Amino acid sequence: MWTCxxxxxSFNKVGxxxxxxxxxLDEHFKNKQSAKKLFNYLVKNINERIGVCQIVSIxxxxxxxxxxxxxxxxxxxxxxxxxxxxxxxxxxxxxKQSVPVSLKNIKNCIDINNEGDVNEELLGWLNEAYxxxxxHKHKSI
Length: 141
Description:
two-stranded antiparallel sheet; 2 helices; globular
């Protein structure tokens, strides 16, 4: 892992290209109150059931970090689009898109439309993503 001296973010590769620019979290939620409510609910569930995470707000999206960046969140007007890497493509109707990001990892993209979408299935996937780089030391949720 490499940590940027300017912004403090951690990456897999030394010198990984990225933006050090951060923006206020509320910038992502202008005129998106439903998305803000879902975001708070999601983060609360992750912190309580998976592990404590740090929120990093950059111009393109919001990143959640445990020991590393495990989740990207893009607030939409009435939902959240989330992206997280796993060592597999999800086999779920909830999957919007999957993209290989390395030889081992696939970025899975889904939407969270309501609090009911933050369920055991989703938290299981996020638990897997949170602990992915810790040699599968998943927390029981």
